[in-house]
Amino acid sequence: MRQVRLILTFIFFLFLVSSSSAQQTSATLVPNLIRNSGTPMGNNPALGFTHIPAWGTWGDPLQGQAYGVNPSDFQVTVVILIEGLGWYAKPYCDYSLTHAYTVPLDSNGHWSASITTGGVDQTAIKIAAYLIPKTYTPPCSYASGGLPSEVDANSVAHVLADRQNPNVRELSFSNRVWWVKANSVKLGPGPNFFSDSTENVWVDSQGYLHLRITYRNGAWYCPEIISKGTLGFGTNYFVLGAPVDGLDPNVVFGLFTYSDTDAADSNREIDIEFSKFGNGSDTNNAQYTVQPYTLSQNFHRFQMPTGVPQSTHILQWQPSVTFFKSVRGTDLNAPIGQWTYDGTSFPPGDQNIRMNLWLLNGQPPTNGQEVEVIVQAYGFAPYIVPQWLILAPPVVFGGNPSFGRVGLNAPAPEGGVTISLVSSNPMVARVPSTVEIPAGQSWAWFTVRTLPPTQVTIVTITARTDGSSRLSTLTVKP
Known about the structure:
It contains two helices and 35 strands. The chain has helices spanning 2-19, 149-154, and strands at residues 46-51, 62-67, 74-82, 86-90, 103-104, 110-113, 126-133, 142-144, 157-162, 170-173, 176-180, 193-194, 201-203, 209-216, 219-222, 224-227, 234-240, 251-258, 270-274, 286-290, 299-302, 311-317, 322-328, 335-341, 352-359, 371-382, 386-392, 395-397, 402-408, 417-423, 429-430, 434-437, 443-450, 457-465, 468-477. By secondary structure, it is mostly beta strands. The longest helix has 18 residues, at 2-19. The protein is 5% helix and 43% strand. The strands form six sheets. Strands 12, 13, 14, 15, 17, 22, 23, 24 and 26 form a nine-stranded mixed beta sheet that branches. An eight-stranded antiparallel beta sheet has the order 10-11-16-25-18-19-20-21, with no helix packed on it. The protein has three domains: 2-26 and 168-382, Jelly Rolls (Sandwich); 46-162, Immunoglobulin-like (Sandwich); 386-477, Immunoglobulin-like (Sandwich), CATH 2.60.40.
């Protein structure tokens, strides 16, 4: 069934690729966000930002207000995210990097915190604050992979805001908007210098994405693009337009999901990577990984054949399975490798899709040459399944109809969704074989026609797509 589902979604993806065009777009200004964690009513604790310093500014304090608590009993702790470096407590941690300093509330619940105390703090793209009791001492966040879960568990309210660089470079590729990672210091992975220069990242006149590691002014620069918005369960397709078997041993080409905020689920990182990871004699040059990679059962290495000019790489992420497949060209019947992860799938969250080309441990290519890869297309087919099925009325006299309503877990994609319907006793209750849910819609009606039974009969109606179903019962009286 998985292969059938994969073929159907792949056909849909190829249609999108053939009809799409890609072009660059100018950067979009993202305004500062003022947010509350809840409605400040009565005794309900809530926390809000009243002033967020503009991206790139130094010395302008973050300001906020707490509601619904006695200010003398509570305090605030703040963390900021610098993309590629991690989360840092502000204004400081103690010298041992054990505990984070906190911010007091005034008698009206107002508070103010410095969030630019060193490094490139002014480039933080996410800011979070937690309202915590004075009796609690928060741990230090220093280059942390996600938001501080212990602090969250001990807080009575929290607030999170995005703060994008107004000059961030954005580009359009495969009908999606992506932003390009860059900073003035080395970032992870690597660490490396990541550049948003058109020498490192560009989309050509055919709509193909080019990622290139370059050497200029005495330094190596790497590219990474990050999708705007999140994508949950579904099937991801990456069509590569050049061979990737001959990458230098120090070069890594990654196609992956990643969350900046949740380290508990290994940042929801699932990877397709092409690299020998520093071992030039390794006959395998590619791998599938469900993080953490330190567990041997969490990755599968394989060999990309020499000189394959075009290849497609598939990451299918669903509640019950994480499945990978690589094929020559776009032919699902020309496999290069595949692997099914035996563990439990991560739950979806705020992860996005990323593509990068980087240097292992920040070391230059062993051959001293610049490196380029080409991605012809990216596609995503969401995981769409029936989420509920209602019959109204649930009890009828034979000969009278009941009306079914089946709903999906998300709006149907382009082309719509076909739901199969089955009755456990079609001699008493008949349903159409299928019901169509149009694109953009999340539910549809169908009619259950009944015949008088000889006795009270309970009939099960099933709505099904590949891999998932929902049931409801109809009682039919004579």
